[in-house]
Amino acid sequence: MPRACEQQPIDRPQIAAVAAGRSLPRTLPWHSGNASQVASMKSRKAGATRSEGFMMIKQAIKVVRTKLTDPQQPTGLLKRQHREVEAMFALLEKSRPGQKRRTLTGQLADNLAAHSAIEKEILYPACQGFLDDEKLLVAYEEHALVEHCLRRLVEADGTDRWFMPRLLVLKDIVEHHVVEEEGDFLDEVDDNIPEERSAELVDRMSARFEQAREEGHAALLEQAPESGPRRVKTAGSKRARSGATRRKPARRAAARRRPRL
After folding, report:
1. DSSP structure class, residue 47
2. Residues 6+ apart with CB under 8 A from 108
3. Confidence check: pLDDT of 127 > 70
C-alpha cells in the first residue's frame, strides 16, 4: 500500500473522469505529494502524534484538491478546462480516421478557442494591475501560437497524413502553456484577486465560455489576431514611463557642443 506522501501517476481515464466532474483522484500529480510532505514536516515539528499527523496530511490534500477544481475561483475553472482538453487530446491520439475523429477535432477546437477567448478577453485584463508586461505578453503570444496551430489542425482532414503530426505539435504547445500557467501565473492570480472579485470573474468567464463554444471555433479563430495587444497597461509599465527621462533634441544638443569662433 503506497504511503500518503508518495505521488502516484494519474492515467488518462482518471483525467477524463475529473474533467467530466464524476470523481476526484486519490492523488494529484505535483500537488498532493508536496502538500503531504509539508503537512508531515509541520506535524513532526509541532510534536504531533502519528494519527494527528495523518489527519493534517489528509486536510492538506483536501485543501489542494479544492483549490484545484474550486468552481468559485477563476483558477479552478481554468484548471478544470485544462483537464478537459487533456482528455480530448488523449482520445484523439487513439482515434482512427473517420467521423468520430472529425467530431472530436471539432469539440477540441471549440473548447480551445473558447478557453483562449475567456483568458484573453477577461482574465488577462484583470491581471494588468499586478502582473508585469513580459509575463502577460508571453501568455498572449502563446495563445496566438495555439490558435495558429489549431487552424492548421482543423484544415487537415481526419484522413490527411498531416493530421497526427499537427495534433502532436498542438498538444506540445498547449501542454507547455498549461505548465507555465498553472505555476506562478495562477498562483499570483489567487494571491491578488479578492474573493468577491473572483466570483464576478467566474460568472463572466463561464458565461463567455458557453457563448464562445456555441459560436464555434471557426468564428473565434477568424476574429482572433495573430498576436496579443500592442501595449499592456500594468503597474510596472506605468512606473517605467514615469521614471523615464526625456532626451533633448539632437540638433539642440549638437549646437550646444559646437565651439564658438
Report:
1. T
2. 85, 88, 89, 92
3. yes
* pLDDT for residue 116 is more than 90: yes
Percent of the chain with pLDDT over 90: 44
Burial-class residue 55 by CB neighbours within 10 Å (0-12, 13-18, 19+).
middle
Would you state the cell numbers that stand for residue 136, as one nine-digit string?
Answer: 502577460
CB contact at 8 A, 173 and 179: no
DSSP code of residue 181: I
Q: pTM for the full model?
A: 0.62
Q: Write down the domain spans for the chain.
A: 1-69, 71-233
Helix (H) or strand (E) holding 186: helix 186-192
Which residues of 88-195 form beta strands (DSSP E)?
A: none
| Residues 143, 170: Cα–Cα separation, whole Å | 11
For the chain, counts of helices (H) and of strands (E): 13, 0
